[in-house]
Amino acid sequence: MDYLTRAFPTRQMEEYTDELGDVRSRPMWDEEGNPVHNPQAEAARADLIEHICAMPPIPTALDALLEHYGVTAVAEVTGRSKRLVRDGSGRQRLESRSPRTNLAETTAFMTGAKRILVFSDAGGTGRSYHASLDARNQQRRVHFLLEPGWRADRAIQGLGRTHRTHQACPPLFRPVTTDCKGEARFTSTIARRLDALGALTRGQRQTGGQGMFDASDNLESIYAKHALHDWYGLLATAKLKSTTLSEFQQMSGLELTDKDGVLREDLPPIQRWLNRILAMKIAVQNAIFDEFLTLVETCVSAAKEAGTFDIGVETVAVETCEVLSDTVIRTDSVTGATSHLLELSLTQRRKVLSLERVLKLASHEEEPLFLRNDKSGKVALGIAAPSHMDEEGHMIRRFELVRPLRSEYLRADRLHESAWEPFTKSTFSALWEEEYAADESQLVTETVYLATGLLLPIWGALPKEDLTVNRIVDKSGASWLGRHVQDLYVDATLEKLGVARKAQTDPAKIAAAILGGGTWKAPHPLGFTIRTARVNGSRRIEIVDAEAARIPELKSQGCFTEIIAYKTRVFVPMDGASEILGRIIA
Question: For residues 198 and 424, what is the distance between their CA atoms, to the nearest angstrom?
Answer without folding.
Answer: 46
